[in-house]
Specification:
heterotrimer; A mainly alpha (294); B mainly alpha (340); C alpha/beta (337); A: 11 helices; 0% strand; C: alpha/beta; Rossmann fold; nine-stranded mixed sheet; globular
């Protein structure tokens, strides 16, 4: 029964076009998208774009140390004479990689558990999974991530594992509440009545509708994860030197305040830019899909 | 409400259970990872006998479950959290010294988040789309995307280096005669030592602001959107049409339900507060529990790590219970649904 | 302005009201050129399909229409000698004091975080004589008794979530009675309630409006109730007035094809069972056609119906209809080509 504004019955392409239109009508969301795309390009091609790619690792040139921003070094040099701008680009790559790795590990686990728990609602499976989830939410995420890292070796990989361990419960909770509310929708009940198997229902009916909120959460989370990852590097339990990481660049640079202010300030500002981009993008997605749970 | 005490007790018990399980998991994991913490702590020159003896004293040579049982017993009966291989003294003493300072910092930050976040959010919502609203929204957005350490750098540069208004870090220590809770500013205040109180506050200020600013921004955004959502609700329209004074509609009918999502988010803020305290304490060389935890974690100190996890879990759980109580106080639907 | 000196009888006079909603796709023309009158002590029925604009009309009168996204294109709403839409504080206060509205969903109408006593207390504190706490409590109990509420003391201390749907609606009605209002607007007061409760609530409204001699506008799908409880009735379709007249006239001699179809579609106990309803669907509000909105579904459509909006034609002194097929003598309409 058509109404003034309806989406059912329209072909899918129309719906995507409409969503894009809505997204693009908000200039801030577009800005977020542009920034994120730009960052991805910078990260992927860091090797080509960075003026001094060799500075990303061990490099010593004390003659050029601690120089302020200039034409040769847009963001100045650090105490070892390394070009900060180049290191920032490689640090960006590291940040994005960690973020992706965390999501790649945490989201599937979290969503899977949430789907299972949600579909077997009110059974022991549900209770067991949700209580298990509570366990990981008992301590603040950064604390948990640090403890996990401590039990292994500090570094890129275990930092990602640590954050993923702290992060997946949120996806379980989100998926669980989505499954619960979607299960009450008519079309799922019809599917049940017509005898469809539970796996079919989950995959075909529920999951496609859950994708938008999950995806939106992922882009909103990206910023938070990058902050946490950089915080871990900051305290020395994340990416280890001499690999460049924005967090450790900031923490190292603090002792050079205020004279060589550029050493911590530029990386910190860069982190702000990255998070800003992902947040704008995520907010835009949230507006388009009109999701309230986030 | 008779279900209230039941509610609290159930939550407490559940929280205790979760923490027990968690502590056991952490406890066991630490002990199965490779590495010899005792040897590391004593150094390479000490003889093997001494190392063995210490290992035995610390129960490291027993099965994990026995170790855990012994530790748990110590915690519950004597408040003994074991021995730290890092500070080389009882963990309980470390906790007593460092924890109050972090609590003080976190409390200050939490109060700031709640007060300023809700204040700004309310103003923003009531003057929707005005310049005031737009300014707050812009600043809030910037606040949300800026990590606390970035704020810390900014404030250090501006207020500690250029305009030497605030000290750069650290914290004055409490003379033993006025130690009550261990919280410097608080103890100074209740003992009437206003000079010390002022000094402590000055040292607390920058760290607290750096910690809370991002969260204030987030809280303001959430509260704003919560109020805006509720403005359109039928019960507000009904209250208006049925004759409630406009001022009352805003201050009571609108504010009360708007607090509910706000408080829920506040729980998350507390979580990130406790997490971010690590960096802030490091940056400002604040002698708090987070900085201690960090050192203990990096040193892979078995008793230290478990104790820190446990303490953070407890603090977090208490904060959550308080927040849930607050929400239940506001929302009768939560109170009356406690037939779980 | 001579207009300000209104007939003493005329409580509410809506003139040529047109309202649109701004949405993503454009402007939805929700109300078009509505004329609506309520005299002192009158009880008016307002009938029409879901989505035809009845709620919008009532909300505009009650001054609770959300102004963006709603836009008032034309028209005036005169209440007790004031134009409600002029934006002044005095008009707002006048509406608040003398008009009450019962919304469709009683659950949504009550603030879930406040006790009934708290809510009612706020209403009473805003009256000319708030009185002491004890006096207020007394008035609350009286109001609850008027709506036949069982155990009123307990209800006062309860939260909305503790009350049943029927009780919630009674509470809303009781709240409307706390003040001495002149006009009660009842927007589908029984739609979200059980059929058994529906009867009670309607009877309650009937008794109250008669006893207290308050003017009332009743919007309801329960046509039987409209028939017995109202003096005059308006029929709306797709944001336009289809027909108006005394209730007896409308029900006994429906003139507009839509009204005919509406009564036809209502299942009657004595009839031949359930009819097929009116074929077709509600038109789009985005780009309304220039002619009569009902034309696509109208079994008696003429050529002119597609081109021009029908004017109001007076059938007799108590009945007028907006339909080309019934054109007899036209009524003067302001601002309509």
């Amino acid at each position: 029964m058509p109404d003034k504004l309806t989406e059912q019955g329209r072909p899918r392409l129309d719906r995507y076009k409409r969503q894009w239109h809505k997204f693009a009508s908000n200039r801030l969301s577009l800005l977020g998208l542009v920034v994120v795309l730009l960052l991805i390009v910078l990260a992927v091609f860091a090797g080509k774009i960075a003026p001094y790619p060799e500075h990303a690792g061990l490099y010593l040139d004390f003659q050029s140390a601690n120089q302020g921003p200039s034409l040769q070094h847009i963001a100045g040099t650090d105490e070892y004479g390394r070009d900060i701008f180049s290191r920032m680009l490689f640090g960006l790559r590291v940040s994005l990689e960690i973020g992706l790795l965390v999501l790649a590990i945490g989201v599937p686990i979290g969503v899977l558990l949430g789907l299972i728990a949600g579909y077997h609602r009110n059974t022991w499976i549900d209770t067991a999974i949700m209580r298990f989830t509570d366990l990981f939410m008992a301590v603040p995420p950064l604390v948990l991530a640090l403890v996990v890292v401590a039990m292994f070796t500090p570094g890129f990989f275990f930092a990602a594992i640590g954050i993923a361990v702290a992060w997946w419960p949120w996806y379980t909770r989100l998926t669980y509440s989505l499954v619960t509310s979607l299960s009450n929708e008519m079309y799922v009940k019809y599917a049940e009545l017509s005898g469809a198997k539970s796996r079919h229902i989950i995959l075909k009916e529920i999951l496609p509708n859950a994708i938008s909120p999950i995806f939106t959460k992922m882009s909103l989370d990206m910023g938070m994860i990058i902050i946490i990852a950089s915080s871990m590097s900051f305290v020395g339990l994340g990416v280890q030197p001499p690999a460049p990481s924005l967090g450790s660049m900031v923490s190292n640079g603090i002792k050079f305040l205020p004279e060589f202010w550029w050493i911590p300030v530029f990386p910190a500002l860069f982190v702000v830019l990255i998070v800003l981009g992902f947040n704008l993008l995520g907010d835009g997605l949230r507006d388009v899909f009109a999701i309230e749970e986030l | 409400m008779q279900s209230m005490p039941v509610f609290v007790i159930k939550r407490l018990l559940y929280g205790v259970l979760v923490l027990l399980v968690l502590s056991f998991v952490i406890f066991s994991f630490i002990r199965v990872i490779p590495g010899d913490p005792v040897r590391m702590s004593l150094g390479p020159t000490v003889s093997e006998d001494v190392v063995e003896r210490m290992r035995s004293d610390l129960y490291f040579d027993r099965p994990v479950v026995v170790q855990y049982g012994h530790w748990l017993q110590g915690v519950i009966l004597h408040g003994d959290f074991g021995q730290s291989l890092y500070t080389k003294r009882a963990v309980a003493d470390d906790i007593a010294e460092f924890l109050p300072r972090t609590i003080e910092l976190a409390l200050l930050a939490a109060v700031m988040i709640l007060v300023f976040g809700i204040l700004l959010g309310t103003i923003s919502a009531l003057f929707r789309n005005s310049w005031l609203d737009n300014t707050v929204r812009l600043l809030s957005y910037l606040g949300v995307v800026t990590p606390p350490y970035a704020f810390a750098i900014l404030f250090m540069l501006v207020f500690a280096y250029y305009w030497k208004v605030f000290p750069l870090g650290g914290m004055p220590s409490l003379p033993p005669e006025i130690q009550s809770t261990g919280m410097v500013a608080f103890d100074a205040l209740i003992h009437g030592r206003f000079d010390l109180f002022g000094d402590a506050l000055a040292h607390l200020f920058l760290p607290a602001v750096s910690l809370s600013l991002g969260s204030i921004a987030y809280q303001a955004r959430i509260h704003r959107s919560s109020m805006i959502d509720n403005i359109g609700k039928d019960y507000i329209a009904f209250a208006n049409v049925v004759g409630v004074r406009r001022r009352t509609v805003i201050s009571k009918h609108l504010m009360k339900p708007s607090f509910i999502p706000s408080l829920t988010i506040f729980g998350l803020q507390v979580a990130s507060l406790l997490g971010n305290a690590f960096l802030i304490e490091v940056m400002f060389r604040y002698p708090g529990f987070s900085r201690y935890s960090l050192s203990v974690i990096m040193a892979k100190d078995p008793y230290g790590i478990v104790a820190c996890t446990l303490i953070f879990g407890v603090v977090f759980a208490i904060a959550n219970i308080l927040i849930d109580l607050g929400i239940a106080g506001l929302d009768p639907r939560v109170r009356l649904r406690t037939t779980e | 302005m001579t207009e300000q000196v209104r007939d003493q009888q005329m409580l509410l006079d809506v003139k040529d009201l047109s309202i649109s909603y701004k949405v993503y796709e454009g402007m939805l023309r929700v109300l078009q050129h509505i004329d609506f009158r309520v005299e002192s002590g009158e009880r008016i029925g307002l009938v029409g399909e879901a989505g035809c604009g009845k709620t919008t009309l009532l909300k505009t009168i009650a001054h609770i229409l959300p102004i963006p996204p709603a836009v008032i294109e034309t028209g005036e709403v005169w209440f007790k000698g004031r134009d409600v839409l002029d934006g002044s504080k005095a008009s707002r206060r006048s509406i608040r004091r003398d008009v009450s509205m019962i919304l469709q969903d009683p659950t949504a109408s009550l603030n879930p975080t406040l006790t009934i006593r708290s809510f009612m207390g706020d209403i009473l504190k805003n009256t000319p004589h708030p009185g002491s706490r004890a006096e207020r409590k007394q008035r609350m109990l009286e109001a609850l008794e008027k709506v036949s509420m069982p155990s009123p003391e307990r209800v006062l201390g309860s939260y909305p979530v503790q009350l049943s749907g029927g009780m919630r609606q009674r509470v809303c009605i009781a709240m409307c009675l706390l003040k001495d209002v002149d006009l009660i607007l009842a927007d589908e007061p029984t739609t979200s309630l059980d059929v058994t409760i529906e009867k009670q609530i309607l009877e309650l409204l009937n008794t109250l409006s008669v006893e207290n001699r308050k003017s009332m506008v009743l919007v309801s799908h329960a046509l039987g109730a409209v028939r017995t409880m109202t003096d005059r009735t308006y029929v709306m379709y797709a944001g336009n007035l289809a027909e108006e007249g005394t209730t007896a006239e409308i029900f006994d001699h429906p003139a507009h094809p839509y009204t005919e179809g509406l009564f036809e579609a209502t299942p009657k106990l004595s009839g031949e069972g359930v009819s097929d309803g009116i074929a077709g669907e509600l038109p789009s509000y985005l780009d309304p056609p220039p002619g009569c909105r009902f034309m696509p579904r109208c079994p008696q459509a003429l050529g002119v119906c597609a081109e021009e909006r029908p004017g109001r034609f007076r059938l007799n002194e108590s009945h007028s209809v907006a339909c080309w097929a019934r054109e007899t003598g036209r009524v003067e309409e302001e601002g309509n080509p």
